[in-house]
# Entry
Amino acid sequence: MNPDTSQFGPFDPQDMQAAVEALIFASTEPVSAAAIASTLREADERVGISDNDIDQLVDSINAELLEQHRPYSIEMIAGGYTFLTR
# Structure
């Protein structure tokens, strides 16, 4: 299922996927969908993204990583997202 892109404000889905991936990558601990959504909303008030949108974006990122035969994925661990090798 694709996220509701109307919540992305002026950003396209690829921009939002890149932002979500970067936030997860930069985190030293698993980061929750709520924390990611909050960070994106604080960064730009035009963004009205929800936790569910973040979950869907992570699913889209993982689909691309699998399609590209990347040796890692984003997984939910201890209530937050983190990168794991396959």
Notes: The mean pLDDT is 91. Residues 5-85 form a domain with the Arc Repressor Mutant, subunit A fold (CATH 1.10.10.10). Residues 46 and 58 are 21 Å apart (CA to CA).
